[in-house]
Amino acid sequence: MRYLLGVDLGTSGTKTVLFDETGRAAASHTAEYPMLQPQNGWAEQRPEDWYAAVCEGARAVLCKAGVRAADVVSVGLSGQMHGLVMLDERGQALRPCILWCDQRTGAQAERMKALVGAQRLIELTANPAMAGFTAAKILWVQEHEPALYARCRHILLPKDYIRYRLTGEIATEVSDASGTQLMDVAHRCWSREVLERLSIDAALLPPVYESPEVTGRVHAQAAQDTGLMQGTPVVGGAADNSAAAVGTGVVRAGTAFTTLGTSGVVYAISDDVSIDPQGRIHTLCASVPGKWTAMSCTLAAGLSLRWLRDACCEGEVQRAAQAGVDPYVLMGDMAAGVPLGADRLLYLPYLMGERCPHPDPDCRGVFFGLSAMHTRAHLVRAVMEGVAYSQAECVEVFREMGVPVERMTACGGGARSPLWRQMLADLYGCPVATLAVDEGPALGAAILAGVGAGVYADVAEAADALVRPAGAQQPDAAAHAAYQPYFALYKRLYRDLREDFTALARL
């Protein structure tokens, strides 16, 4: 039996999963590491901690599964996007990585607009100037740590540091590179114009590969560290959401997935590059060669329901503990007893500001229409519907751009709720399926590894063979029609309140 190793480098830990060639997970291990917050709003991690976690995970899964290193035919990497790893001439990390969620770079994002032009930046990189993307972080180091920046010889993304430690090769791939804001997304290469205007030397950036391409092989030291066989190929891999797309079978135009975790992500595949000139959603290169993706991110999806649980549902938490069930199950039962539209109560899920389709750090959460008749059950229903409206608004932008969404897969903790999945199906107007086994980015990374090793002919064939869908919930035409006036009002509320959000932030 041949095996594939999928490594998913996350923010809280690295999940390493060993799959056999049928897609069965033979063993899994997660190793955690700390986040450093030296100042308010900063978020950093030590790249050395990531590598230690990968070494621990690789050894653990080989041991748990009783698999020989020689039977592992390829390694795939997935990881958190947008981080900034800087190496000196000896390949040593110059400083901790500045993470995707770091908030120090607002001024640098504004500077990018001035240097490149706000609209030109969207035309070239397919996205508006974003404080969370890598380019703004590079400008911050240029401005605040110039001596350190002068010593930099290589700029890498988090998972690509792991590649370097495993193989000695400096490389990246298209899906992760798309999130740097330095890439010409339409042409799948670094943008010479953006680099010149931001005064970033192109020699600092790694060569860019397609996600299933072999980018290096495990060298002797890494083999000793990880227990893997020297010479095992390592493929390009993918950014976390791009790997998750492959791991959920979203590899063809018309397919998409919705993740309802702390944040909410909608990710759709397209055969052509399509850029929103208003910058409401992100366009990136897909991890499937020759395809692109439209991706949105709602910052407080599952977070909204968790906030409501902690603030208002102590009784349900206690009863759930006594019954041995998840409190969200009881909250879902409460919401199911409330009619569609929550008796004219709407919720805007902007607890953390918003990213898509309203890139606005000042907007905040709103209950609209609250009256004395409303109960906690109404609040739960309104929160679930508000999050579903936010996903539907993003899908509306996708379709406006010509990106088809015909079949949706739901994943993440929120997708375990049949009620929430039905809301999505009714609002999207398309079936919403689940997966028999949801291994997410780790499976996607392993699928890409299998393609690179020649186990499968291409990504679509591999996904068809390894991803196992479960049942799908069909849209209800009557519910879809009933939601439309609420959905229209939901969208209008942000426009009506936008200036008030700004005024509130200035108080």
Automatic annotation (TrEMBL):
Top-rank taxon, per record: Bacteria
GO biological process: D-xylose metabolic process; xylulose catabolic process
Limits of the Carbohydrate kinase FGGY C-terminal domain: 258-452
Protein name: Xylulose kinase
Protein family per UniProt: Belongs to the FGGY kinase family.
The EC number(s) this enzyme carries: 2.7.1.17
Keyword Transport: no
Function description: Catalyzes the phosphorylation of D-xylulose to D-xylulose 5-phosphate.
Enzyme class: transferase
